[in-house]
Amino acid sequence: MKKKLEKQIEEIAGIISQLDHQDIDVESLMELDDLLELLSNKIKSTKLGYPLTRESQNLDSVRHEAIFIFDRSYTVFRYTGIFDHLFYPTRSGSLQLFDLLKVERQEVFKEKVDRLLSSKENQEFETIINSAQGIPLAANISLELLAEAGGDELIMGGVNFSNTTMTDIKNYQQIVIENLPDIDVYLFDSDYRYVLAGGREKERFGLTNSYFAGKTLFEAFDEKIHKRLFPFYHKALSGEMGDGEIRIEDQVYYIWATPVRNFNGQVVGGTAIVQNVTKDKEVEMRLKKAKDDAQKADQAKSVFLANMSHEIRTPLNAIIGFAEQLGNTELTKQQEDFIRFISDSSEHLLSLVNEILILFKLGMGKVYIEKIPFNLTSELNVIYNLFIIKANEKKLRLSVQIDPQIPETLIGDPFRLRQVMINLMSNALKYTDEGVVELRCLLVEEEPGRVKLRFEVEDTGMGISRDLQPVIFEEFTQSSANLDKKRKGAGLGLTICKKLIELMNGQIQVSSEPGAGSLFSVTLPLQKARKEDEAERESHYSLRDNQLEGKKILFADDDEYNLLLAETVLSNWKADYELARNGKEAASLLRASAYDIVLLDIHMPHKNGLEVVSEIRNDARNPNFDTKALAVTANVLKSDINLYMDHGFDGYVLKPFKETELYNKICNILQLTRNEARPLQVNAPVDTLSPLEDRFSTDSLWQTSNGDEAFFNKMIDTFEKNSHRFAVGFEKDLNEQAWQRLGESAHRAIPSFKFFGLNRLVKQLEELEDLALREQAYQKLPDKTKEVISKLQDVKQEARKARRKY
Predict the structure, then answer these.
(1) DSSP percent split of the chain into helix, strand, coil, nearest 5
(2) Which of 318, 312, 311, 320 is nearest to 562 (CA)?
(3) For a tag site, which of 51, 109, 657, 760 has the least CB within 10 Å?
(4) In angstroms, rounded to a whole number, what is the distance separating the alpha carbons of residues 632 and 726?
């Protein structure tokens, strides 16, 4: 043993002398490291076998992997062994055992020590020791009482590990590195020479880990491959991390290369991890293709919906419209019956088309729930007026009740709420032949800022059998299998109701007995409106008042039947109207003279409705620059409607429309005074303003008011309040740097200021919108926003002066 140790020490000394002359290669360094580790282990093993005291010479036959000596107070006097990684020694002061050795369940250790001291018999037990790296190692600890030292007993502890030693762990780590699947790891020096290679991916190309030892990157791989790897290796040796994809033959790899630094922070080498991601790329491509296919399918469905809506609703408009006009003429009893059959069948077909379209939209996720202020009482009145005639025809009592504790204005989606209630009420009337149909709205819960309402639709109709109640909300399910033909539908109404209610975070339930009627309950959460929120209300106008007499109206449509229907209706109103058969003709008429309102079909040859309205909105010299415009369309998609509004339309009319609906829509858009004598016409001068001219003009408002000074002043007051609200909002957005919100506010403000001829301010608002939402040039926004806020203060003063005294 002694001669072997001496020989190894001589070898180490020779290598070290070469280090002094800086004449050594990497292989010699690796050899030195192996010799030092071997020598260290042998010395420690020898020390472990050497008797610690005379009294413990019998330990020569016992080999422990670590030994430590301590007293009753657990103060350590001495420790030795090859497992320094397990210990947490301190360099100064006394050393406590449990600071040195992290033993789990210290109470067991202490119990064994007490038993040793009392019985003088050696103790042995199993435990867990945590290494400095936090690795739990199963160990066997033996305790033996040594000779007294200064009157105190000394205890010797020996440690042997059950299964794993630090050398084992090192070997296991090497095994793991060698067998990494789909991954290769490399350690290389500053000369691009491999020091270590691991992983099994390289076996795909007939290479082994041992093949790389001592070879450079340029020797280990052919030119095509090492040229792809070199940029990453070079970046690591330059002190940076490099990563990216490379392709080798038909495989795709992702590589990470990082620098390796010494104690002085100098880069002495690098590591590279190369992972095969071919399968991941294939999955990614499949997912991308699936996404693209889904988007194409979604787009195709949208086009189909738009086309189907247009192609079916456009002829329906003529059928329903002419049937309505024919019903206003003198007819025989048989002819009246024929007209009623046509109207009923058309309405039934329209109902089916609407249900199919909304179901498609729900399935495509194209239905969006709005949160806008609305008046609940007004909505329920609309429903009552819609069904009272049908109820009277069937001699049913129709009742609509609302809890007086419910706030007048709420925040939600009135259109979807109305859609649900109309569907439920329609079913109730359809399946009830005698008795009552009631709609009740009750306050269930009230909290700060929100309420929960329950809408109940109850009838005394035929009821629903219990076995059908669980499935009536499924598609194409009828409430009864034995309904007569006139009551049958597509079975989509309740499905649509349930889906819409769930979109509004509500629930629907049914309670029914055959022959005793049904009760549908809808629970919905809604927000309370703030004081500044004002629900938009549409007034109801009667055709008898004929408030559109003398109004100059342009109606543009390429369908000859719809043009004939429009001519009939506008003649009935004694309006001053003109008809255009395509978009180009409409644009020409709009450039020639001013109109009170313009109705444009969306799908027209030469120029569509969007192009026509954009043209007049973008030309301040056009006599119809501020004229109200309605989109006449068969498209029912919300995205289409929003697009129309963005292009400058003030509202829309869905085909097919009835004369009363069209009349009310126009009167509301023009904000005519309801059920009062028409005020004296006042011809205010029309100023032609250039796009950059900025003068507060009330001419358009005065024309719209038809000389109604009360209405005029109310609109001025509303405009002044809105100007103040926008100024406060812009200032808040500026202070909070809420640029997205600022851009959206600027977009909403534009129509109001455009109406009053404030074109320069409109340009400034459009610039804010572009900078915030499109260009995202946020650094330019503070100064621009301050200019707009300052201008809004001036506008408020001008609006206040514009009020008329009467």
Answers:
(1) 50, 20, 30
(2) 318
(3) 51
(4) 32
pLDDT at 61: 42
Tell me what pLDDT residue 31 has: 57
- Give the C-alpha separation, 52 to 191, whole Å: 50
What's the number of CA atoms in the CB half-sphere (13 Å) around residue 341? 6
Q: Are strands 507-513 and 436-447 parallel, antiparallel or unpaired?
A: unpaired
Distance CA 128, CA 135 (A): 10
What is the residue-wise DSSP string for 309-370? HHHHHHHHHHHHHHHHHHHTS---HHHHHHHHHHHHHHHHHHHHHHHHHHHHHHHTT-----
- CA 730 vs CA 132, 268, 617: distances in Å: 59, 57, 25
Look at residue 484 in the predicted model and tell me its pLDDT. 47
**pLDDT of 689 strictly over 50:** no
Orientation angle between helical segments 560-572 and 278-327, nearest 10 degrees = 50
Both tokens of 776, joined, read 């995202």
Nearest 5 degrees, angle CA 389-CA 391-CA 397? 125
Residue 554 has pLDDT above 90, yes or no: yes
pLDDT recorded at residue 452: 92
Task: Judge whether 410 and 526 are in contact, CB under 8 Å.
Answer: yes
Query: Which tens digit of pLDDT belongs to each residue from 64-76?
Result: 777 888 888 888 8
Pairwise CA distance, residues 132 & 113, whole Å: 24
Separation between Cα atoms, residue 425 and residue 382, nearest integer Å: 12
pLDDT of the residue at 48: 36
Q: Determine the residue type at 205.
A: F
Q: Is 664 exposed, middle or buried (CB count within 10 Å of its CB: 0-12, 13-18, 19+)?
A: middle
DSSP 193: B
* Burial bucket for residue 521 (CB in 10 Å: 0-12, 13-18, 19+): middle
Rounded CA separation 457/421 (Å)? 8
User: How would residue 584 be classed by pLDDT, with cut points 50, 70 and 90?
Assistant: very high
Instruction: Determine the Cα–Cα distance for residues 54 and 679; give it in Å rounded to an integer.
Output: 126
SS (H, E, C) 537-597: CCCCCCHHHCCCCCCEEEEECCCHHHHHHHHHHHHHCCCEEEEECCHHHHHHHHHHCCCCE
- Parallel, antiparallel, or unpaired: how do β-strands 397-402 and 436-447 relate? parallel
The pLDDT, as a whole number, for residue 569 is 86
Q: How many residues are listed for the chain in this entry?
A: 806
HEC sequence for 478-493: CCCCCCCHHHCCCCCH
Q: What is the largest CA-CA distance in the chain?
A: 135
Q: What is the mean pLDDT of the chain?
A: 77
* DSSP structure string for 101-116: B-BS-HHHHHHHHHHH
Buried b (16+ CB within 10 A) or exposed e, 4-18: eeeeeeeebeebeee
Cα angle 617, 619, 622 (rounded to 5 degrees) comes to 95
Query: Mean pLDDT throughout 645-655?
Result: 86
Pair of tokens at residue 425: 């009420």
Element (H, E) at 451: strand 450-459
